[in-house]
# Entry
Amino acid sequence: MISFKQLPIEAKAAVAAGVVFFSMMLSRSYLAEKLDFRTRRWLLRLQMALFINTLMLVGSLHVWRSTVTTFTRSPAASSFCFMLWKIAVFTFLALAHSSFFTLLFLVAEEPYFFSLAAYTCLGAYIILIFFLFTLGSVEQAYKFLAGRGAKAGTGNKNRTALKPVLAVLLTVVLTVVGLLNASQPPTVNSVEIPVHKLPSTMNNLKVVLLSDIHLGPTVGKTKLAMIVKMVKALKPDITVIVGDLTDAEAKIIRPAVEPLGELDSPLGTYFVTGNHEYYTSDVSNWFELLKSFNIQPLHNENVKIVSPKSTSDWFCLAGVDDIEADVLHYSGHGMDLKKALRGCSSEHAIVLLAHQPIAAKWALQERPDINLILSGHTHGGQIFPLNAGAYLLNPFFVGLYQVGQNTFVYVSPGTMYYGIPMRLGSRAEITEIILRSP
# Structure
């Protein structure tokens, strides 16, 4: 039987990841009632960072072997430039690994340069891993098809050296493109949506949709102030924020949230939780903070949006807690559609705010009379190659979907970004939704 010491280092990293994951499960099950709230919150986030880092270690070993070890037998291996290259690769990997720890130690009103650098390296790390794997697969397929799998000539050595060089070049180019794309203001996307049973007096009602701003290590007050300024220029009747506003505790990042107090939509500004609000374990304090800015959380509840032209005309605006609250057993929270739609009948139009598209799907299965659901969560994949995974994991990916004859779902690609300050294959968006009466 093989002992732990005899296992390859990749296997040891996988075992370590399993141990950390098991400790997370134990903490949730057995320590939840024994630790105070703040300690439990900090421990959970630390465990999550350690779990992700142990998984990343497998990829980092592959990166080091591909970009450094491969060239140790070349004539340039003893040169000063190669020493600098090794330092650069090590620093790159160290920054990528440190990114998740910035959530614990480096969150303030404005992002720290270290956090921006760390998350940029994390984005580049994901892209580099993808290209190393893809080019390696292509190389193996070529060898198999050419019948040269057992040969090790000069051509094979050249191709082995070419693979990491090409992967690094592609990663650098895409990282720069992604950074430039994400640094641009969100695009304003105007969408007209017919809403069944919407009163004629509410035709052309304007709803501005925000989602996935992710105030935290890499998004701060300046970015949020820019978003608020753009929203105010649109002069919406209603503004809605469909989750993942933050990645930090309310007390720590309060100064960065102040621009939200400038939102002044005449029919109100509303908020529902996303999964990241529950990762902060500080939802109650966030609710109180948002209320102080005249933003109403819809905590499995609804409000009547009354027409400015006729008090007898209205539609039901409802919001549900994010489904992650159920997974985390977050006390007093969890998606409760029946409670959220209490008093909302099919005689009036129903608009639902639900952060995750899978929650939108579940809601329609239970209440097919919902006319419009506004969601976020997917980020449109945010960066290549994560786009494909986000597309496959969500029943609605991004944009407008018609479900049945009288129901629509709109999924925002996000107003900012999560952590990694990059956008590849997606674009940040502020959505201007014009509600049309049939």
Remarks:
- The chain has two domains: 4-182, 187-436.
- DSSP finds 14 helices and twelve strands in the chain.
- The mean pLDDT is 88.
